[in-house]
Design a protein that fits this description.
Length: 649
Amino acid sequence: MDYKPLAKDILENVGTKSNVQSITHCVTRVRFVLKDESKANDAAIKNLDGVLDVIKQGGQYQVVIGPSVGSVYDAILTIAKFPDSVISGNDESAPTGGEDDQKGFLNKALGLISSIFIPVLGLLSGAGMIKAILSLCTVTGLLTDKSGTYIILSALGDTLFYFFPVIIGWSAARKFGLKEIYGVTLGAFLVYPTLATAASSTAVSTIFKGTIFALKYKLTFLGIPVALQSYASTVIPIIIIVWFASYVYKYCDKVIPDVLKMVFVPFFTLLIAGIVSLIIIGPIAMILQNILSDTVLWLVGLNKGIAGFLLGFFWSILVMFGLHWAVIPFFAIDVAHYGYDVINPLIFAGGLAVLGSAVGVAIRARDERVKSMSVAAAISAFFGINEPALYGVLIPRKKILLTSFTAAGIGGAIAGFSGSKLYSFGASGILGLPCFINPKGIDAGFIGLCISGIVAFAVALISALVLGAKKDVSDSKPSQKFVEHSDVYAPVAGESFDLTTVNDDVFSKLILGDGIAIKPNEGKVYAPAAGVIRVAYPTGHAVGMVTDDGEEILIHIGIDTVNLQGKHFTMHANQGMRVKKGDLLVEFDEPAITAAGYDTTVMMVVTKSDRLKSVMPTKFGPVTKETKVLNVELKELTTEADAAATVTN
């Protein structure tokens, strides 16, 4: 499949290449950081074939694609030819401050965590699966931990986790605008064998004794105590260290003469960042990481059942808004720190609940389109990718969505009461089940986890079968009335005439749809019916809306007036705005546009759709905004599926 047309449309509607500060992707979403989010056309992107939704969260503009996200992402990079700084998440030419500063610490932190961990997660999951399969092999007696096969595969699975500071150092350097080799070197410095051995040896003294900041040390640097820590498998220290190093590098690069930069910029960057990291940043960061991990374990331990229900219930909501990336790194951190994680088992059942709901909708659906979409979403959910089912199947069916969340919560409570644990970070969904097997053998926690998934799947499936596959009909959605005909009024005062006579082939040949043309005698465009604005072009020359009766109407002011780039136009409508008939949408300076050499004819068309039976002009001649100019006849809706499709299109 050729993804370039979709990639081109996405790129154009996020404000073109020039508006992209950084771009990356996860398993379902292309994630942009835009210089100005107001330039993005949310409605246009959501309506693209191949796009499930648009989410703005964590400082990111997330275009939800589904399983094909990698292909779409590659197509965007092929078309845009972004510099490495944009692909790496660091566009130094992008403006700083302003609106971005107002996003708040939480949004910035979430965006930071996402951009650093997303490039690593695939490899992290693969390494975790190697460890999980080894656990399965030892439990079943296929391998022993003394065999050469086990030792080699175990080393392969452990390498990424042990050298986490190196890998995260590389990714963090890309994010902070530091050359990746510096991040790799600083990460390797933290796990250098001599320092690692010294960190594990008996300390000779303690600093800050008697406080929560107490640290033991053996080595000193110029007489300063160095509280060496075991940095293998850690995350937070290297992120802070690379962030600090990026400022050291940029300062040195700025003040050191060009003739000396090649040697002295790396010299001072490594010397300053390396020493400060061991003496100050590393120990403090380790304290923070341990406090965070211990706090999470303490909160979960207060009542594992309640914690399991709440986290299981709300996890899919976090996924829908992209907030789950802030939690996922703690799975790996806990496994490295404690040897297991207690958070992930509480959300395991959520994927099975989504799978059950999608299967239930697929069984109950009578419309083949709904059935095929639900089957595809169920397959994705089976492999741990829930977004297609959430956006395409569950969100339009709020009752089933709620039962899916509830089923996930019940499953989470069962896993919590059972004491289930994650022992290796691996694949999501059913394929990741071996990751929960205790290396010592199958225990009550693993059995409880299996039961939690079965119960969640069964509850969600039965609920979906009972509720059926019909989509919700919301009062805010157009087409709820399912009328057979509707009236459309003139959008502007003037002289109406036959659309086929205008000097624009797209409109005169009715390529977009039938309608009417009006030569305006005033520069105000009004809503021709009640509805919702779908597209409000920043240039002001066109407005698209969906009426409450379900027609999609395009109002285009002038011929080729897009070339004016908004000059002489004032847009009063916004995307998503609900309007009444007669509400002011656009003002334009008709004499100035004419003087600039453009035809100011206003063209209004009812765009083609399967619902339309006919579009008939009712008045040629003088019109005002109170004049009915089009009579739209609709085909009769004969099935529930037709009605549901109409509501959601």
